[in-house]
Structures are given as structure tokens and as C-alpha cells.
Amino acid sequence: MTEKSSSIDRSDLLSERLPGHLAIIMDGNGRWAKARMLPRIMGHRKGVQTVQAIVEECSELGIKFLTLYAFSAENWLRPKTEVTALMMLLKKYIKMEVPRMMRNNIRFRTIGNLKELPEDIQAELENAISETASNNGMTLTLALSYGGRQELVNAAKSFAAKVIAGEQRIDDLDESTFASFLYTDNIPDPDLLIRTGGEMRISNFLLWQLAYSELYFTETSWPEFSLKELYKALLDYQARERRFGLTGEQVRNLM
Ligand code: FPP
């Protein structure tokens, strides 16, 4: 960690310029474990501790939406032992976290093709979603068996089915109607995407929704992503000028 990041604190952040929606690609668990001669699953286990700390901190900071890429559609292709271990960790996490979500007024949601998950996990997730449904603090969304391209294809199919049923007209399709067919209906687009673990790619995550998001990549692996690392990313975001295709001058005149 640099000298600058070690001195960063929560009080350095401007509360009025926090991202409304923060999305995170939590990468580097396996490499973290390998570097310590540990099995990969130990990296995921340590990663769960980071999830707990970051969720709690984002909620306390007043971030309204936090979306975590916990299991991609492509992750099913990993060795069976790793997939099974990840599913067990997920089940344990949800069971353990519901009381904490209730205490912290966190609403829980998921995005992705949940039907591919084991039935006991689907039941656990549904329970967490319904128990926290009336909380109105931060919305925590876990992306599970999620793929951005699959999401877009599903949205196109759902829209086409409505056209065939006479409930939609092709000429009425615009960006906001299309977005309502995505898993993220009623969730605003992310303002900031953080990816840990040193890779600089999107990996099929929120392809539509990230169109205007600020991107932040760090070498730090997810198990080592501390609160100070989070503050550093948020400070970096706060120093950026978001232009949404306008000129800098136009944006400043709007403020
Ligand atoms: C990437 O690390 C991470 C994942 C595939 C899953 C993320 C899972 C967790 C943080 C733990 C489970 C989460 C919850 C919410 C229970 P990687 O294995 O691809 O790391 P590598 O690139 O170093 O191999």
C-alpha cells in the first residue's frame, strides 16, 4: 500500500459525491491463496470476510446500491470441487447475513439465472429477498450465475414474446423500455465499477448498465481489499468529471 492510501480515512470522502451505485468485480481470490500455498477455496473464504466488511461500510457510508459479481455464468466451468465449495460458502453467507442485513436496513436482491443454482440455495436466496423486502437502506445485489450477454439475449426474447402476445409494439421500443426487461429493472446504472485483482476487463458483467460508469482497477486482490482501499477508489471517483458525452464546460454550466 502506498503512503498516500495508508493515510486515507473515511472523513476524506465528500458524502454528497459518493456513487449512488457501486458495482464490484471481486477478483484475485485464487491467486491470493496460491501465493500463500493455500487451496483456492481459502481465498474465497477470505473473500467472504472482505464482502462482509465492504457491505457494512458501504451501507454506513450511505451508498444506496451495491452490486457484487459473486458467480458468473462462466464460473460453472470451474472444477466441480471449487463450484461446490463456492455454493456452500454462498449458502452459509446468506444464512449468516440476513440478521445483519435486517439490523443494517439492507435490502437484498439477486441478478442472474438463479434457476441454475441448487434448489436449497435458491430457497435460501428467496428467503433473504423476502425477509429484507421492506428495508429501505442500501440495496445489496449479488450477481449469481450472471452473464451480461445472456441477460441481453433474455431481454430481447422477453420483449419479442410481448410483441407476439400483442402487449408491446416494436416501434415503441426505446432504451428505457429495453432496460425494464433486464435483471436490473428498478436499479440505477452503476456510477462506479471497481475491479480488484489486477485484470483490466469487464468479463461479461453488466454490459448494458456500465455504458457511462467510471472504471477503477486495482492490483490489490479481493481478500486484501481493505476499507482504506475502498476509500482510495471512492476518492479517485470523486476527483473525476463525468461528462456523459457533453463538453466539460457544458457540464460545469449545468451544476
Ligand atoms: C474471483 O476470484 C472470484 C470469484 C469467482 C467468486 C467471488 C466469490 C467470493 C468473493 C466469495 C463468495 C462470495 C459470497 C458473496 C458468498 P478468482 O477465483 O477468479 O481469483 P483468481 O483470478 O486469482 O483465480
Report what the structure shows:
The structure is a single chain. The protein has helices spanning 3-6, 29-34, 40-61, 80-103, 119-131, 148-164, 175-179, 227-238, 248-254; strands at 21-25, 65-72, 107-111, 139-146, 192-195, 214-217. It is an alpha/beta fold and 255 residues long. α3 (40-61) runs parallel beside α4. The protein is globular and about 55 Å long. The two termini are 35 Å apart. The site of farnesyl diphosphate (FPP) has 19 residues, from α2, α3, β2 and α4.
Brief rundown of the structure:
With 255 residues, the protein is of the alpha/beta class.
Structural class: alpha/beta
Strand line-up across the major sheet: 3-4-2-1-5-6
Mean pLDDT: 95
- Please give the alpha-carbon distance between the first and last residues: 35 Å
Shape: globular
Query: How much of the polypeptide forms β-strand, as a percent range?
Result: 5-15%
Radius of gyration (CA) equals 19 Å
Quaternary structure type: single chain
Helix residue percentage: 40-55%
What small molecules does the structure contain? farnesyl diphosphate
In DSSP terms (H or I, runs of 4 or more residues), the helix count works out at 9
- The string of secondary-structure elements, in order, is HEHHEHEHEHHEEHH
